[in-house]
């Protein structure tokens, strides 16, 4: 059962100031092919995301994390409820960066051209584009691959290209859908560190989807735990570890350990209790069932 | 959603005869195949009788004769001109129409059924009609070639746009791309391999239709020569014309392959990896 020492917050979380993103009672239904009944991806989800906060969305597969991100970006609209980004309904653009779960690189463009893509759309000058693209390729460690094509890169490298592409327009809202899932352990740690640094240098709202509880606790100010079928907010947890977290061994802190244990158990419960889950009714002796997708 | 970084099985190399033979130039093999072909041809000619099938030597002599007096080159120039004219017009019409049909879904759905109907109708059935309207000159032949080549290019272009990747389109939209930018930067390059495939099918159909048109009008070009030599049972020069057509076909296809390779460098990169 859930631990009592973990501080669980009401849905509206952040400080007194006006939140950067407001999600009010949204519901989203997807129509199914050859079937009248749709599938309820999200039901009555409300959320406030404060200015410059780093938020993680965690929860079992199919609980609507990607759907929520797409709605925050303005790519799809909720059926009911309302989303406001800086007080306005969201419109896609360079002020928001989206790292997709699948890399979505243009196979006919080189790595350089792929990262340059969002800037080219908005008519930035060639020299400035080049300078920026190289800066972010450097950051993700792919400077040498600027002239390669995506088909010549490994999965982890492609994911870093997608990350550079989302960062290159220097958005003040960063939506990241399991951005580090394809990375090996060392690269992953390195990229987490880089992301913390970027976020620290030029503050932005980050909404970060991950299946790694460890990663969520390490990076976030707040963790939103979602429950599947239909997708709902299960609880919102505050991470009270001081920033910057690379200055000390955050993972060794008791708060860290406690939060991670709590989340892990909650997700494990959800997965075991979900009749549609592949892991239904397993007693969850193996932590991997819950921790990994 | 495919999980990122999924493991691919190691590519299975087709077994080959070790490094020794793979060092031999492919052209040597082609030459060897040609020699085998000549021997078989010669044997068939001997068996069937030389009135129907000339021997390679007779054909070679006929080639020297018809090439040196200019008969075949002149006819070939004629045919190539007709073929290229019809083909280029077909491409100029088919690609934009296919793109428009793909870009504007209503237009595409409306025209689709007529395009399919026209593509399914044997184009030969139009030839008498075209001759009635345009006579036996270049215009008629160019129209026949055009009709033969236009449909595969159009249908492929349309299919290419329709098949564009929804995930890439969403990525572009997320980056703030306007509809016109999505079309130009995502749908069009995505359709390019389809368009080139259509151009290749169109090219061979253009060549076929050139000969068909010339056979019908029977005065000029390689088709005209075929008709003359065929009717007078001069099989050696007849074979020369056939080979000339084959060579033109190979040249056309090779130049399109070069174009394809240049345009789709990324695809060749990916095939080298696997
Ligand atoms: N375009 C769509 N059409 C139909 N159903 C959809 C669509 N997108 C998502 N769904 C459904 O909505 C639910 C939530 O999907 P979503 O992709 O948001 O889950 P997720 O939390 O991102 O899962 P994962 O962790 O596996 O990525 C799923 O049941 C899915 O089947
Ligand atoms: Mg997802």
Write structural notes for this entry:
The complex is a heterodimer of chains A (293) and B (274). Chain A has eight helices and ten strands. With 293 residues, chain A is of the alpha/beta class. A seven-stranded mixed sheet of chain A has the order 1-10-9-4-8-7-6, with helices on both faces. Chain A has a three-stranded antiparallel sheet with strand order 3-2-5, covered by helices on one side. The two termini of chain A are 22 Å apart. The C terminus of chain A is likely disordered. Chain B has a single domain, classed as MetI-like fold (Orthogonal Bundle). Chain B has twelve helices and no strands. Chain B starts with 17 loop residues before the first helix and ends with a helix. The interface between A and B is medium-sized, with 34 and 29 residues.
By CATH reckoning, the class of the domain at 16-95 and 171-249 in chain A would read Alpha Beta
- Which outline of chain B best applies? globular
For this structure, the CATH topology of chain B is MetI-like fold
Give the class-level CATH name of chain B. Mainly Alpha
Q: Which range does the strand content of chain B fall in? A: under 5%
Structural class label of chain A: alpha/beta
* CA(first)-CA(last) distance of chain A: 22 Å
Q: Compute the separation of the termini of chain B in Å.
A: 22 Å
The geometry of chain A reads as globular
CATH-level-2 architecture of the domain at 16-95 and 171-249 in chain A: 3-Layer(aba) Sandwich
User: SSE string of chain A, helix = H, strand = E?
Assistant: EEEEHEEHHHEHEHEEHH
What's the CATH superfamily of the domain at 16-95 and 171-249 in chain A, by name? P-loop containing nucleotide triphosphate hydrolases
Beta-strand residue percentage of chain A: 15-25%
> How many beta-strand runs of chain B?
0
Q: What's the SSE pattern of chain B?
A: HHHHHHHHHHHH
